[in-house]
Specification:
The protein is of the alpha+beta class. It is built from eight helices and four strands, in the order αααααααββαββ. It folds into two domains: 174 residues, no CATH class; 66 residues, no CATH class. Strands 2-1-3-4 form a four-stranded antiparallel beta sheet, with helices on one face. A hairpin with a 7-residue loop joins β1 and β2. This is ABC transmembrane type-1 domain-containing protein.
Length: 264
């Protein structure tokens, strides 16, 4: 085969395609994460359903309805604009990401034609000026063509590979994440008698750090004593049990079992 033609073509287009695919991979990955974080309509619907009784008691139904409607309209606008890029085939709701997917598809599908144009641009001078064998040049051109066709067919799955890589990264980060409440196998092991002490406990849920649930809660429950925790929906009654079971840790203050801090 024509080594000069193959080497030049391989280096030029491999570098071009490599840089293009790396750029697209990083861009699509960032946009995937952005879309997941900015799904406001889904977040609003979950919070509204979880706190529906509190919303009704405060007569704020209209406010949350308008808030959800605004987020839904934003998604609808993105969905309609997206149709100009992919014809509505993709179910995602982000125009920039759809544009990147369309760019990836167009670049990889036209790559073979750019490769042929470059191959002939290099091959013709080799024949006319340097007296290379015509058959050797054509064999080199068709070897480049077949290589480009293989790359083109593989690259159609590139967006799916990028999305799978993003999802796998999030999954492994979740698996490797260490619990903020500590390791259950470490700490002091003692026999519990049943005395519970809440001493100036402050707490806010991690999802809503600016909405305090407890502001200096303090009470004592002795062994065998029955205590009723009374309050409206959302006031933190079930949160007391969650703190005792250490699904969460208090933001400030101390919770003790028989005088021993439960964090130790």
């Amino acid at each position: 085969f024509c080594k000069s033609l193959n080497l030049r073509k391989t280096l030029r287009f491999s570098v071009l395609l490599g840089f293009t695919l790396v750029w697209l991979a990083r861009t699509i990955q960032k946009l995937n994460l952005y879309v997941m974080k900015e799904n406001q309509a889904g977040k609003f619907s979950i919070e509204i359903i979880e706190n529906v009784r509190t919303i009704q008691l405060l007569t704020r139904e209209r406010h949350f309805y308008e808030k959800y409607e605004e987020a839904s309209k934003k998604q609808k606008r993105n969905e309609m604009t997206k149709g100009y890029y992919e014809g509505g085939k993709n179910k995602e709701l982000d125009v920039e990401k759809d544009f990147c997917l369309a760019a990836s598809f167009s670049l990889t599908q036209t790559f073979v034609y750019f490769s042929l144009a470059g191959a002939y641009a290099v091959g013709i001078p080799l024949i006319t000026r340097w007296d290379y064998d015509v058959q050797a040049v054509y064999r080199a051109v068709f070897s480049v063509l077949l290589s480009c066709l293989a790359m083109m067919n593989c690259s159609t799955f590139f967006p799916e590979f990028t999305k799978a890589r993003t999802a796998a990264g999030m999954l492994f980060n979740m698996i490797d994440r260490k619990s903020k409440t500590g390791d259950i196998n470490k700490g002091i092991v003692q026999e519990l008698r049943g005395n519970i002490f809440f001493e100036g406990v402050h707490f806010s849920y991690p999802q809503r750090p600016h909405q305090p649930i407890m502001r200096g809660l303090q009470f004592t429950v002795q062994k065998g004593q029955t205590v009723a925790i009374v309050g409206p929906s959302g006031s933190g009654k079930s949160t007391v049990i969650s703190l005792l079971e250490r699904f969460y840790d208090a933001s400030a203050g101390t919770i003790r079992f028989d005088g021993q801090d439960i964090r130790k």
